Amino acid sequence: MPPTIEKPGFSAPSFSWDEYIRYRPAYPPSFWNRIYNYHSSHLGQFGVAHDVGAGAGIASQDLARNFEKVIVSDPNDNYTTIASVRLITQSGYPKEKFTFMQERGEERSVESATVDLLVVCEAIHWMEIDVVMKEFARQVKPGGTLAISHYGRPVMVDNVAAQGVWDRMFDVWGRRNFYRDEVHTRTIRNGVTGLDVIPFSMDHWEEGVRRVWINTRGKDDAFSMSVKHTDPFPSRVGEGDAREWIEDDGDWVDEKDVQWLKGLFASFIPTIPEDEIKELWDEMEDVVGKGKKVRFAWPIVQLIAGRRQ
């Protein structure tokens, strides 16, 4: 009998959306305001939005409040069904508002120049960058907006010892997953660049693409998952792109105990079983303090671009 090959990433059978939503950061109003304000200032319409790599429809929930129609697409089995339940059954939106598609971001089912706002939240690092960027340019209307975002692992605030243990945990994660296979290696290399790997062709996008780095503390490697196991792709930032830095953004700061950190760490896939790094978790408990909490900040990058007229 041939060996069982585990499906990559979010398609792995062990993955749980309930756990993911519980431990990952919510997208705060400031995140959406940055996108919507840009879109409005460029006279973008609020007709059709497309949430690419939508998963369980986390971003689609906010898009549904602001757009007449929302396309929800994801390549993984059953995810658009989960999104449908969350958006229609649980949130109460009319089913006519949505179009659900099980397909990769690289595919071409959406008609050309029909999307006012296309968003990709915490998903583009899994995609073939050059292919999807051409596809996004095809879908977005002239005058429309493309918004891509990615956050890295959180950084401990004012607790150097806890950060040291956290780094060593992710070195274990990196050693296991960076060299796992071609898909995971490419995905990690894309993510650790802070999306600098994403180019915006001036044939398609207005000059002055916004690249907003939040809570990165001036570090070029703020999005590295592992200190030891990292090999980012070369930067493809355009000369006319506009870099911005925002520090100490409280919308991306939280405070939790060690038990919660265990759940968060497990949400980074493929996961490392808790018992494999028990000594590190014991050490984390010591440096944080039993029953106490540690403060941390999420580094996040937002790319916002306007489609040429």
Topology:
Layout: H1 17-23, H2 29-41, E1 48-52, H3 58-66, E2 69-74, H4 79-90, E3 98-102, E4 115-121, H5 129-139, E5 140-151, E6 155-156, H6 160-177, H7 182-191, E7 210-214, E8 242-246, E9 253-257, H8 258-266, H9 278-288, E10 293-297, E11 300-306
Parallel strand pairs: 1-2, 1-4, 2-3, 4-5, 7-8
Antiparallel strand pairs: 5-11, 6-10, 7-11, 9-10
Helix pairs in contact: 1-8, 6-9
Can you describe this structure?
With 309 residues, the chain is of the alpha/beta class. Helix content is 32%, strand content 21%. The chain is built from 9 helices and 11 strands. Strands 3-2-1-4-5-11-7-8 form an 8-stranded mixed β-sheet. α5 links the parallel β4 and β5 (140-151). 38% of the residues are buried. Mean pLDDT is 93; it is low at 1-8.
Succession of helices and strands: HHEHEHEEHEEHHEEEHHEE
Low-confidence stretches: 1-8
Counting DSSP H or I runs of 4 or more residues, the number of helices is: 9
Largest sheet: 8 strands, mixed
The total strand number stands at 11
Strand content: 15-25%
What is the approximate shape? globular
Average pLDDT figure: 93
Structural class: alpha/beta
Strand order in space, largest sheet: 3-2-1-4-5-11-7-8
The residue fraction in helices comes out at 25-40%
Keywords for this entry:
309 residues, alpha/beta, 8-stranded mixed β-sheet, 9 helices
Task: Provide a concise account of the structure shown.
By secondary structure, this protein is an alpha/beta fold.
